[in-house]
Specification:
51 strands; Leucine-rich repeat, LRR (right-handed beta-alpha superhelix); 4 domains; mainly beta; 8-stranded mixed β-sheet; about 650 residues
């Protein structure tokens, strides 16, 4: 009973503590002020007085006032002057919004931001000193401050938000330093200052093109421009725009409703396309986005009715809402593997969109969860189909017909690090595969159901092998597993085949394979270190067979064709150079299990030689011997220089 009581008390304490953590902070009153405690001091949450001139206290009951809450003086029409102590470091949104008679404000010297709509609709505010500590002015901060006539923007200021000074009709003087690097849409729209600018290209801050005043159809933006604000917003005259390589950002609404814009280049170092940048550019036909891009905002290409394709660059991680919405002609959309966020309405009202993704990318599950259809896209390098996350390459499929395949160490400057799921599965041609040191992962079923597979090199950089990688009936005489392996999937290969598994004693791969029921030999009991593909000898090509070239003489007459025998039942025959036709009579003395070396000059082989025999043909690639082998489903081995001394 006593234990039960203790348990109940503990549960009550936990519940009370959780409630206290979730509950709103307690509000206190100090004269005409209400306040709450914060982590480092006090935040004033309400002013109940009616004074015209207000001085905010710097401390209450010995605690520092360091914050003014959101909407603190919202719509206080009686307020004319406010002094805020330097102890305050944070102003809330809408803090003075709608104070129509406010004329003067002394801002604290340590704030970093003028928040959203802080002085919006303060129509009587004539002047304000923005502290040097301020680095950003949020959207609508001074919107519709019609009496404001001069603004000195501090040297540390880096960004001015959307519509920050919009409709400040009396604002004629704006002093700004080169530190200003971001100006959002309509930041100075409707100001006397902007309306008074007559230059063709109006710049502000650090190379920001604020407005284009020209009327040309083809516009070449000056070299040195770093960013495009909404300079072409609503421009119905411009048809083509050339941007210099100095441009890094196309910002919010830069070309919004430029209804006749047909073409624009995207500079090679561009990093950002802002929200709504090309919204309503209904004649824009193409958007060749550079690999340097890292972000594309919502609505960026919304309403681009003639746009047919959007290939998002490999560094883009978020696909925002309506980025390609209402694009009637948009069909081909490619999403990079780096994407981890995809808005379900990204391509809303674009009825013909085919979204293509990299197989296995994170975005695939997001699309599945939202019921959005998609297909896979890949790229091709020679006979290798691959996809990439921008940093490394995954071989998706080998589509070639070579017998000896050497996987490249890199493609497009990126290392090949993975062999994809079923990448070589069922390939009827491949006999030997050499992997580069860069490969770290071989995925499930990669080399499965390749009955003629004779060798795969597993290099020292390999870390993981998936499940069922060699499932089937390959003729692998030996498979050497490097000590670098940390993971091997189930059913590496069928236990009933004769492949000799080799691994370094004491490594994970050695121990796991033994635990999985495989017969594993120490590495020192296997063949010497792997040789390059072009040095492999015939002894490596056929399971269990060793051919000594000295056994075979240089025979030139058909009567002496039967030149060597391996074991009890395998005949090794070399057809002499100069022979053009292999007839059934030519090898009538050969047994039922036959290795036949065919010279390049042979142009005809009688299919009757196959009757009742198991034949392996050895020859050069591209010869009739190879064609005959393929057409008749005969095993073909590529001749190397060490074959029979040739």
């Amino acid at each position: 009973m006593k234990k039960a009581v203790i348990l109940i008390v503990l549960l009550l304490c936990i519940a009370i503590n959780a409630y206290a953590q979730d509950a709103e902070p307690e509000v206190f009153t100090y004269g005409e002020w209400q306040y709450q405690a914060n982590d480092t001091g006090l935040t004033i949450t309400e002013y109940t007085g009616t004074a015209k001139n207000v001085v905010v206290p710097n401390e209450i009951e010995g605690k520092t006032v360091n914050g003014l809450a959101e909407s603190l003086f919202l719509n206080y029409m009686s307020l004319e002057k406010v002094v805020i102590p330097n102890s305050v470091t944070v102003l809330g949104k809408f803090v003075f919004q709608g104070c129509g008679n406010l004329k003067e404000v002394a801002l604290p010297l340590n704030i970093k931001t003028i928040p959203e709509s802080a002085f919006e609709y303060c129509g009587s505010l004539e002047t304000i000193a923005i502290p040097g500590s301020v680095t950003s002015i949020a959207k609508k901060a001074f919107k519709d401050c019609g009496a404001l006539s001069i603004i000195n923007l501090p040297g540390e200021l880096s960004s001015v938000g959307e519509s920050a000074f919009e409709n400040c009709s009396s604002l004629r003087i704006i002093n700004v330093s080169r530190s200003l690097s971001t100006v959002s849409a309509n930041a100075f729209k409707g100001t006397a200052w902007l309306e008074g600018q007559t230059d063709e290209f109006v710049f502000i801050g650090r190379g920001i093109l604020l407005r284009y005043n020209g009327d040309a159809a083809r516009v070449e933006v000056p070299y040195g421009t770093v960013a495009i604000a909404n300079a072409f917003d609503g421009n119905a005259k411009v048809e083509s725009v050339f941007l210099p390589d100095t441009v890094r950002r196309i910002m919010m609404y830069a070309f919004h409703d430029a209804v006749n814009l047909t073409s624009i280049n995207f500079p090679q170092y561009l990093t950002t396309i802002g929200s709504g940048a090309f919204w309503g550019c209904r004649r824009l036909e193409s958007a060749d986005l550079p690999e340097s891009l890292t972000s594309i905002g919502s609505n960026a290409f919304r309403g681009c009715e003639r746009l047919t394709a959007l290939a998002f660059p490999s560094k883009v991680k978020k696909i925002e809402s309506y980025v390609g919405g209402s694009c009637a002609s948009l069909t081909d959309v490619r999403i990079p593997a780096a994407v981890t966020s995809f808005h379900k309405n990204a391509f809303a009202k674009s009825p013909n969109v085919n979204i293509q993704i990299a197989a296995g990318a994170d975005v695939e599950q997001i699309l599945i969860d939202n019921g959005i259809s998609y297909t896979y896209y890949n790229q091709q390098n020679d006979d290798f189909i691959y996809n990439s996350d921008g940093e490394s390459v995954n071989i998706v499929r080998y589509i070639g017909n070579l017998y000896d395949v050497e996987v490249p160490a890199e493609i497009d400057g990126m290392p090949v690090t993975a062999i994809g799921v079923a990448a070589f599965q069922n390939n009827p041609s491949v006999r030997r595969v050499k992997l580069p040191l860069t490969v770290k992962t071989i995925n499930d079923w990669a080399f499965s159901y390749m009955d003629d597979l004779q060798a795969v090199s597993l290099q020292s950089g390999l870390e993981s092998i998936g499940a069922n990688v060699f499932t089937g009936d390959p003729v692998l005489p030996e498979l050497k597993l490097p000590g670098s392996l940390t993971s091997i999937g189930v059913n590496l290969l069928d236990k009933n085949i004769s492949t000799k598994l080799c691994a370094v004693e004491g490594t994970m791969s050695y121990d796991q394979l033994i635990n999985d029921g495989y017969w594993v030999l120490p590495m020192n009991q296997c063949s010497p270190d792997e040789v390059m593909l072009d040095q492999w000898e015939v002894a490596n090509l056929t399971v269990g067979m060793t051919v000594d070239p000295s056994m075979v003489g240089s025979m030139n007459t058909p009567s002496a064709l039967l030149t060597a025998r391996y074991g009890d039942n395998i005949d090794v025959i070399r057809i002499p150079d100069g022979t053009t036709e292999v007839t059934a009579d030519l090898i009538s003395g050969a047994g039922s299990n036959l290795i036949l070396s065919v010279p390049e000059g042979v142009t005809a082989i009688d299919p009757a030689i196959l009757s009742g025999r198991i034949i392996t043909i050895v020859g050069r690639t591209g010869t009739y011997a190879e064609t005959f082998a393929r057409e008749n489903n005969v095993k073909f081995v590529v001749r190397v220089n060490t074959w029979l001394g040739q």
